[in-house]
Amino acid sequence: MIRIGDSAILKKIQMTPQARGAESRRYWDWPTEWLEIAEKCIKEKKFSITTVCLNYFEADKFIPTEIQWRTYIEGTVKALQAKGANLYNSRLDIINEPTKHVRNSNNHPDVDKYIWLEHIAVDQVRGRLETGFGCDELVYDGWQSNVVSRCKGNTYVIHIQASCDTKAKTTNFVNIAKNRAVTYKKILDCNEGNYKNVSQASGFDLMKFQMQEAERVGCANYYNVFNDLVRSAYKGDTSQWDFLAFKIDGNFRNDDAERHYNEWTGLMDSKAPVPNIKEVFEMYGIEINLVQPGSHNEETRAVQQIMLDEGYDLEPFGADSWYGTITEDAIKKWQEDNGLTVDGIVGKNTWQWIMENINTGMLRFMQMLARTGRYS
Question: Does the 280-371 domain belong in CATH 1.10.101.10?
Answer without folding.
Answer: yes
